[in-house]
Amino acid sequence: MSGTLDNSTSWQPIDETPLDVLNDAVNLIASTTINGVAYGVVLTLYLVCVYALIQQFRAGIRKNQAIWSGVYITIMFALGTVYCAVNSRITQLAYVNFRNFPGGPAAFAVFVFSTPINIAGAAAFFITSWMNDALLVWRLWVLYRGSRYATLITGFALIMYLGTFSMGMVTLIESVLPTQSFWSAIAIKFALAYYALTTSYTIVITGLMIARILMVRRAFIKATGRREYGTQYLSIAAMLIESSALYTIWGIIFLGLYIVNHPVQFVFLASLSEVQIIAPLLIIYRVSIGKAWQSDTTQTLTAGGQSQSRTAVRSNGITSGTATDRTYNNIHVVVDRNVTHDESSLHKEHYELA
C-alpha cells in the first residue's frame, strides 16, 4: 500500500510489530546520538592526553613512558573511530538504503553482522576491550612492584586476563560466522560468559590495586605517626575507582539488558566501546600530569624499595630553620621545620607521586 497524505496509517512501517518499531527507534538513537556523544568525549580526552604527554616529553620526564602512552592512546582512539564509523555506516544502510528490510532497520543490522564492514567494527570493539584490560595488568604491576607478592598477584592477573582474552576471541569468532550474529543462540552463551568475566576482572583488579594503596598508606601513617601525610593515597584510590566505575557500571547494565534482550541494550552497546576508551584515557592523563602511582612510588614510600621516602615540609613566609632526618621503622623521612615571625608550623610540600 502506497502512502497518501490523507491516510496517516499508510506512513507507518509495514509488517512490523510495536516491539520492532521500538527496537528501530532505540537502535537509531543509540547508533547516532549516544555513540556520537561518547565519541566526542573520547576525542576531547584524547587531545587533552596528547597535549599532556607532549608537555611531559618536552620536560624530559619519563620520555619513554610518554612515547609508549602516546602510541597506546592513539591506537585506542583509532579503534574507537573505526567503531563509530562502522556504526554510522550500518545505520545509514539500515535506515536509508534498505529501509524496507523485513523486520525493520534493527533486524537489518543483525542480518549484516557477518559482513566485512561489521566484522571490522566488532574487531575494533573487542581489541579495545583487550587493550583496556591489559592496561589494568600494567597498573597492577606498577603498584605491586617491589612487594614480595608482586609475582603472585601479577601472575593471577595475567591468568584472569588470558581468560577474558580467550573468551572474547571465541565470542568474536562465533558472532561473525555466516548466518550468526551477536544475538544468535550460540554467540549469546559465549557473550554472557565473556561480559561476566571481563566485568569481574575489572572489579577484582581494581580491588587489588586499592588494597595495595591502602596497605601502603596504613604502613606509612603507622611509621610516621602523621595521618595527614596519607591523604594522597586516598586520592589515588578514588581515581582508580572513578576510572573503573564507569566501564563496570556500563557493562553490568548492558549485561542485564542483553540477558533479557531488552531494546535499551542498544544504548549501552553502541557506546560501550567508547566507554572502554574513556577509562584508560583518564588513567593515562593522570599519570602524565603526575597524579598517579608510578613504578617507583612504592620504592620511595616503603622500606622495601631501593630509594627512601622523602617528605619535604616548608612554609610560605620568611623562614629560618633546619632540616632534620628521622627514621620510622626503616622509612626515612626528611622534615624541614620552618619558623615564621611569631609561630612555627609544618606544611607538607606537594610532591608528585611518581
Entry keywords:
mainly alpha, Rhopdopsin 7-helix transmembrane proteins, three-stranded antiparallel beta sheet, 6% strand, elongated, disordered C terminus
Number of helices: 9
Do you know the CATH topology? Rhopdopsin 7-helix transmembrane proteins
Identify the overall geometry: elongated
On the 0 to 100 scale, the average pLDDT is: 78
* Strand percentage: 5-15%
Q: SS-based structural class?
A: mainly alpha
Order of helices and strands: HHHHHHHHHEEE
Helical proportion?
Answer: 55-70%
What's the CATH C level?
Answer: Mainly Alpha
Strand order in the largest sheet:
1-2-3
Report the major sheet: 3 strands, antiparallel
How many DSSP E strands?
A: 3
| Second CATH tier, the architecture | Up-down Bundle
Overall radius of gyration: 26 Å
Distance between the termini: 70 Å
Low-confidence stretches: 292-296, 298-354
Q: Quickly count the domains.
A: 1
Region (Disordered): 304-324
Keywords: Membrane, Transmembrane, Transmembrane helix
Transmembrane segments: 36-54, 66-86, 106-128, 149-173, 193-215, 236-260, 266-285
Protein name: G-protein coupled receptors family 1 profile domain-containing protein
